[in-house]
Amino acid sequence: AGMPASAQSDDEAARIETLARSGDTPAALARADGWIATHPRDARVRFLRGVLLSDQQRSADAIAAFTDLNRDFPELAEPYNNLAVLLAAEGRYDEARAALESAIRAAPGYALAWENLGDVHVQLAARAYGSAVRLAPAGRTAPVKLKAVRAVADDKN
Question: How far apart (Å, rounded) are the C-alpha atoms in residues 66 and 86?
Protein backbone atom coordinates (compact mmCIF):
# COMPACT_ATOMS: atom_id res chain seq x y z
CA ALA A 1 0.00 0.00 0.00
CA GLY A 2 1.92 3.03 1.22
CA MET A 3 1.13 6.70 1.26
CA PRO A 4 0.77 8.49 -2.07
CA ALA A 5 3.43 11.15 -2.26
CA SER A 6 5.25 13.54 -4.54
CA ALA A 7 8.94 14.40 -4.38
CA GLN A 8 7.97 17.65 -2.66
CA SER A 9 5.86 15.75 -0.12
CA ASP A 10 8.69 13.25 0.45
CA ASP A 11 11.13 16.11 1.13
CA GLU A 12 8.75 17.79 3.57
CA ALA A 13 8.00 14.50 5.35
CA ALA A 14 11.75 13.87 5.67
CA ARG A 15 12.26 17.32 7.24
CA ILE A 16 9.42 16.70 9.70
CA GLU A 17 10.79 13.24 10.58
CA THR A 18 14.26 14.74 11.15
CA LEU A 19 12.80 17.27 13.60
CA ALA A 20 10.89 14.52 15.40
CA ARG A 21 13.98 12.27 15.61
CA SER A 22 15.97 15.15 17.06
CA GLY A 23 13.42 15.25 19.89
CA ASP A 24 11.65 18.42 18.79
CA THR A 25 8.18 16.98 18.31
CA PRO A 26 6.46 20.37 18.85
CA ALA A 27 8.46 21.85 15.96
CA ALA A 28 7.76 18.77 13.83
CA LEU A 29 4.04 19.14 14.51
CA ALA A 30 4.12 22.87 13.79
CA ARG A 31 5.89 22.21 10.50
CA ALA A 32 3.37 19.48 9.60
CA ASP A 33 0.47 21.79 10.44
CA GLY A 34 1.96 24.55 8.29
CA TRP A 35 2.48 22.19 5.35
CA ILE A 36 -1.03 20.71 5.65
CA ALA A 37 -2.55 24.20 5.68
CA THR A 38 -1.30 24.72 2.12
CA HIS A 39 -1.32 21.03 1.02
CA PRO A 40 -4.52 19.61 2.59
CA ARG A 41 -4.51 16.54 0.32
CA ASP A 42 -1.00 15.45 1.34
CA ALA A 43 -1.85 12.09 2.89
CA ARG A 44 1.76 11.31 3.82
CA VAL A 45 2.31 14.42 5.94
CA ARG A 46 -1.16 14.11 7.44
CA PHE A 47 -0.37 10.52 8.42
CA LEU A 48 2.95 11.61 9.89
CA ARG A 49 1.12 14.29 11.89
CA GLY A 50 -1.16 11.58 13.34
CA VAL A 51 1.88 9.52 14.32
CA LEU A 52 3.47 12.56 16.00
CA LEU A 53 0.26 13.21 17.94
CA SER A 54 0.24 9.56 19.04
CA ASP A 55 3.87 9.82 20.11
CA GLN A 56 2.94 12.82 22.26
CA GLN A 57 0.17 10.81 23.97
CA ARG A 58 -2.41 13.13 22.39
CA SER A 59 -4.78 10.26 21.70
CA ALA A 60 -7.94 12.25 21.04
CA ASP A 61 -6.12 14.48 18.52
CA ALA A 62 -4.45 11.47 16.88
CA ILE A 63 -7.78 9.62 16.66
CA ALA A 64 -9.28 12.70 14.98
CA ALA A 65 -6.33 12.94 12.57
CA PHE A 66 -6.55 9.28 11.51
CA THR A 67 -10.36 9.42 11.31
CA ASP A 68 -10.11 12.40 8.96
CA LEU A 69 -7.49 10.59 6.87
CA ASN A 70 -9.75 7.54 6.62
CA ARG A 71 -12.60 9.74 5.45
CA ASP A 72 -10.49 11.49 2.81
CA PHE A 73 -8.41 8.46 1.73
CA PRO A 74 -10.48 5.32 2.40
CA GLU A 75 -8.17 3.34 0.10
CA LEU A 76 -5.18 3.69 2.49
CA ALA A 77 -4.74 0.90 5.03
CA GLU A 78 -2.17 2.46 7.40
CA PRO A 79 -4.41 5.18 8.89
CA TYR A 80 -7.06 2.56 9.73
CA ASN A 81 -4.44 0.42 11.45
CA ASN A 82 -3.07 3.31 13.49
CA LEU A 83 -6.59 4.41 14.43
CA ALA A 84 -7.36 0.86 15.57
CA VAL A 85 -4.30 0.73 17.83
CA LEU A 86 -5.38 3.96 19.54
CA LEU A 87 -8.98 2.78 19.92
CA ALA A 88 -7.87 -0.58 21.33
CA ALA A 89 -5.64 1.19 23.87
CA GLU A 90 -8.81 2.92 25.10
CA GLY A 91 -10.68 -0.40 25.30
CA ARG A 92 -12.83 0.52 22.27
CA TYR A 93 -12.43 -2.94 20.76
CA ASP A 94 -15.53 -2.99 18.56
CA GLU A 95 -14.46 0.24 16.86
CA ALA A 96 -10.89 -1.04 16.60
CA ARG A 97 -12.11 -4.24 14.96
CA ALA A 98 -14.11 -2.23 12.39
CA ALA A 99 -11.07 -0.05 11.60
CA LEU A 100 -8.84 -3.10 11.15
CA GLU A 101 -11.38 -4.77 8.90
CA SER A 102 -11.30 -1.59 6.76
CA ALA A 103 -7.49 -1.72 6.72
CA ILE A 104 -7.59 -5.32 5.51
CA ARG A 105 -10.18 -4.51 2.84
CA ALA A 106 -7.86 -1.75 1.61
CA ALA A 107 -4.76 -3.99 1.73
CA PRO A 108 -5.51 -7.73 2.12
CA GLY A 109 -1.79 -8.51 2.44
CA TYR A 110 -1.21 -6.10 5.36
CA ALA A 111 0.16 -8.59 7.93
CA LEU A 112 0.35 -6.09 10.82
CA ALA A 113 -3.36 -5.28 10.46
CA TRP A 114 -4.16 -9.01 10.55
CA GLU A 115 -2.05 -9.44 13.70
CA ASN A 116 -3.69 -6.42 15.35
CA LEU A 117 -7.11 -7.82 14.40
CA GLY A 118 -6.16 -11.07 16.14
CA ASP A 119 -5.18 -9.09 19.25
CA VAL A 120 -8.52 -7.26 19.21
CA HIS A 121 -10.37 -10.57 18.86
CA VAL A 122 -8.48 -11.89 21.90
CA GLN A 123 -9.65 -8.86 23.91
CA LEU A 124 -13.23 -9.30 22.67
CA ALA A 125 -13.08 -13.00 23.60
CA ALA A 126 -11.79 -12.16 27.09
CA ARG A 127 -14.67 -9.72 27.53
CA ALA A 128 -17.23 -12.31 26.38
CA TYR A 129 -15.82 -15.12 28.54
CA GLY A 130 -15.62 -12.72 31.49
CA SER A 131 -19.32 -11.98 31.09
CA ALA A 132 -20.08 -15.71 30.93
CA VAL A 133 -18.15 -16.32 34.15
CA ARG A 134 -19.94 -13.45 35.92
CA LEU A 135 -23.34 -14.71 34.77
CA ALA A 136 -22.70 -18.39 35.54
CA PRO A 137 -19.67 -18.67 37.87
CA ALA A 138 -20.13 -22.43 38.14
CA GLY A 139 -20.16 -22.88 34.36
CA ARG A 140 -18.00 -25.75 33.15
CA THR A 141 -15.94 -24.28 30.33
CA ALA A 142 -16.06 -20.45 30.43
CA PRO A 143 -13.58 -20.11 33.34
CA VAL A 144 -11.05 -22.33 31.56
CA LYS A 145 -11.50 -20.41 28.31
CA LEU A 146 -11.21 -17.08 30.12
CA LYS A 147 -7.96 -18.20 31.74
CA ALA A 148 -6.59 -19.35 28.39
CA VAL A 149 -7.52 -16.18 26.52
CA ARG A 150 -6.11 -14.01 29.33
CA ALA A 151 -2.84 -15.92 29.03
CA VAL A 152 -2.74 -15.08 25.31
CA ALA A 153 -3.60 -11.43 26.03
CA ASP A 154 -0.93 -11.19 28.75
CA ASP A 155 1.62 -12.73 26.40
CA LYS A 156 1.04 -9.82 23.98
CA ASN A 157 1.84 -7.18 26.62
Answer: 10
